[in-house]
Amino acid sequence: MTRRQHFIVILILGTLTTISPFSIDMYLPGFPAIAKSLNTTIEQVQLSLTAYLIGISVGQLLYGPLLDRYGRKRPLYAGLVLYLLASIGCAQTTSIETLILMRLLQAVGGCVGLVAAQALVRDLFPVSKIAQVFSLLTLVLAISPMIAPTVGGYATVALGWHSIFLILAGITALILVAIYFVLPDGKQADPSLSLRPKAVLSSFLTVAKHPQFLTYTLVGGIATSAPFAYISGSPDVFMNIYRISEQQYGWMFAFLAISMIAPTQLNHILLKRFRSEQIIYATLTYQSMVGLLMVWGTWAGWFGPYGLIAMLFLFLAGQGLTGPNASALSLSPFSRHAGSAAALMGSFRMGFGALVSAVVSVFHNHTAIPMVGTMMICVVSGLAIFVTGQRVIHYRAKKAGFEESLSEVAL
């Protein structure tokens, strides 16, 4: 693969991973307008976000076995067509109940991009390069929050909130064309893999029992769910409590997205000197300290809007380091079941993200505490699981080495 082909493939894989973030971030500035148009509340509109995250979580479990059985492209086409049709359905809705349903279907279709992109990374690049490729994908992923809310804010004001979903449908159509003409096929179909429920569950169980996968999927899933608390809570905190406009919210969201871009590139440099495990530990320790200070300061009334934005900037900087390294460590043990592993990992991340989003909505109290408190709990919990999981992995590795040495002596 030439450098030009390498760049184009990573760019297409990056756009696949941005489908869901765009679907989430672009309509956030439209929350007040959607609530007013559909004669409902912000809290009810937040449930459409929760429904989207649930759809991603469930959908990824469906696509994992399909991607392993039928190859990468056929399930990819099917999912993206469903997403495109559901996006048009969102644009035509006249009730919050229909919007929630369409968002669920939109998520089930669009989440194929997340699973397929991660499986294709495992297919197309050597294991030693996976963490670096994930860092580049995270760079593309981090740019989307800079663009999506800004576009969504201006589209809401100029064309109405319905136009947001038509824009998403148009973007997906362009991605489908790029996949057909440019993207390599990756792993071919494997007819030996059964899609019967028992076989599928067995495949997932094989993946889930691997201690390295389990540890880093839990760590990555819980720690990287912190931004979902921010995404769910920030429209209310900044537009209702601090009274900033839709356009200002879009620019604020874009500014905070910058905090995730630089660390993704720093990861390239750090990986030359440190292991992924060391980077994750240092990052979660840093985020835990920042999170505690952010919660305490919010409770004590130290922060106005600009102070809270500064703290969020410092906190979110860690997301660009934890995510890629946790993903690489989760997927590296697998080849044949890479699709199932990617699906299981992504499903847990989005499922926990949905839970986090719902928690912020349930504990809504007209302050920023539910948002920042949930963010802090995510990273502290991730750090605790990381420390525990590392001990288990090292113990099992030491035990396996000891048993192997005994068998050699016996021979």
Automatic annotation (TrEMBL):
One GO BP: xenobiotic detoxification by transmembrane export across the plasma membrane
Localization, UniProt: Cell membrane
Membrane-topology annotation of the record: Multi-pass membrane protein
A Pfam family the protein falls into: MFS_1
GO CC annotation terms, alphabetical: plasma membrane
Gene Ontology molecular function, alphabetical: sodium:proton antiporter activity; xenobiotic transmembrane transporter activity
Ranges that cross the membrane: 7-24, 44-63, 75-94, 100-121, 133-155, 161-183, 213-231, 251-271, 303-321, 369-389
Keyword line: Cell membrane, Membrane, Transmembrane, Transmembrane helix, Transport
Gene3D superfamilies: Multidrug resistance protein D
Residue stretches making up the Major facilitator superfamily (MFS) profile domain: 9-393
PANTHER family linked to this entry: MAJOR FACILITATOR SUPERFAMILY, POLYAMINE TRANSPORTER 2-RELATED
Family assignment from sequence similarity: Belongs to the major facilitator superfamily. Bcr/CmlA family.
Name of the featured protein: MFS transporter
Biological source species: Larkinella punicea
